Amino acid sequence: MSSFLLLRSRLLTTATPAKAIVPPLTRGFRHSAISMGLSSKLKPAARVSGQRQDVWSFINEAAAASPKQPIVNMGQGFFGYNPPAFLLDAAKEALDRVDCNQYCHTKGRPRLKKAIADAYSPFWGREINPETEVTVTTGANEGMLSAFMAFIEDGDEVIVFEPFFDQYISNIEMPGGKVVYVPMHPPATGATKTSSAADWTIDFDELEKAITPKTKMIVLNTPHNPVGKVYSREELQKIGDLCVKHEIIILSDEVYDRLFYVPFTRIGSLSPEIANLTLTVGSAGKNFYATGWRVGWLIGPEHLIKYVSAAHTRICFVTPSPLQEACAVGFEKAEAAGFWDETIKEMKGKIDRLNAVWDELGMPYSEPEGGYFVLVNMAKVKLPEDYPFPPHVINRPRDFKLAWFLIQEVGVAAIPPTEFYTAENAHLAENYIRFAVCKEDSVLEEAKNRLRGLKKYIQE
Ligand SMILES: Cc1ncc(COP(=O)(O)O)c(C=O)c1O
Ligand SMILES: *[C@@H]1O[C@H](CO)[C@@H](O)[C@H](O)[C@H]1NC(C)=O
């Protein structure tokens, strides 16, 4: 049996234990409908039938095929532990209330809108109006889809920085938008020296050149997934000024806004002119370790928010009501409970805990300024020349091979970041691998034990 067949047969026989550790991923779509040769009437729409295997299925399949069971999963950014007790208790209580189990206003439960407005007004330095400047969405992701649905017509352009959160692309393309990519440049010495995530930079000439009369929106993500960069006030000011000059709507994805390890600026707070163009996106899932709850929101000026609400009404109608109520209680209690300070301390501790192993191995990484992902540069890892990569891995950039190799040889799953680049710019990140640290400390320690097994493949 060829080694590929061996991998395949393992895939079939070991699927059960791997599944226990790597939960079924809901993102992305396989292309089975095409290969099954369905009649043209049953043919799926192009928007869901991409030919290339998406990264989440890739990692699941690799995990199922690995002899190192169970796999330590540091791939997807879901938490390995529960939300705080005050949130869980609130959710349980909400389920006993008649009004919480029924439809609520499509813009969100009044208590949650108020709790968000109260929590965020201090950052904006003025009172946010909960009735006109906040809209609750079914996770940040659906919130962003609603924003694009609200403003994008066929052929409108949206600027996105690479690497990007993968859902942006389909969310922009579904209403007919065209994505215009601008790369973030990795630090020049990234392959040899650990550096700050701040050293991933935007070339502002490249950004300005990407702007055309059709540019309708720009997507910003700070703290950034996967880079861990927190955009500086100066960088945000430059981006904001360009958007005011060209009248471009800023969609600022700030889902990791409670996880920053350097000063964090919100672009919507820079000036009234910039605020007037800015939709700020938040996620209770990320804030409260409850990514499965699907509660998010947008904050912005009334003349933008009302159309986001209108789109959300057509897409989801409402966001699950009991979980909105629980998130409202979460915001009401978090500050007094010291939760926001604790969440920073805890996550920074996890980042440092994992990164100790890279220091030990002499492997450079980007020191995150925010969020819970670490990008590690694995240029020094020498992949054996005759390694039996299956055909669908051979043709992908080096980071996919690295990710496959890590899963097979050390039993740790992590994400190849070129998935978050266009083919043209993928080379910028092909030596990096993304690790999610939002896991139990014991899981991080087990990952470190396994990652020490990379030592014999490291070439200085
Ligand atoms: C940058 C970024 N934006 C948005 C989301 C989605 O957030 P939500 O789960 O609230 O939809 C994620 C989730 O991984 C993310 O990394
Ligand atoms: C904000 O935008 C609205 C609608 O376009 C406009 O009427 C208002 O003057 C703007 N305010 C500022 C401060 O730019």
Automatic annotation (TrEMBL):
InterPro entries: Aminotransferase_I/II_large (IPR004839), Kynurenine-oxoglutarate_AT (IPR051326), PyrdxlP-dep_Trfase (IPR015424), PyrdxlP-dep_Trfase_major (IPR015421), PyrdxlP-dep_Trfase_small (IPR015422). Gene3D superfamilies: Aspartate Aminotransferase, domain 1, Type I PLP-dependent aspartate aminotransferase-like (Major domain). The keyword Signal applies. Keywords: Aminotransferase, Pyridoxal phosphate, Signal, Transferase. Residues 1-20 form the signal peptide. CDD domains: AAT_like. SUPFAM superfamilies: PLP-dependent transferases. Residues 71-450 form the Aminotransferase class I/classII large domain. Its cofactor is pyridoxal 5'-phosphate. This is Aminotransferase class I/classII large domain-containing protein. It comes from Bionectria ochroleuca (Gliocladium roseum). The lineage of its organism: Eukaryota, Fungi, Dikarya, Ascomycota, Pezizomycotina.
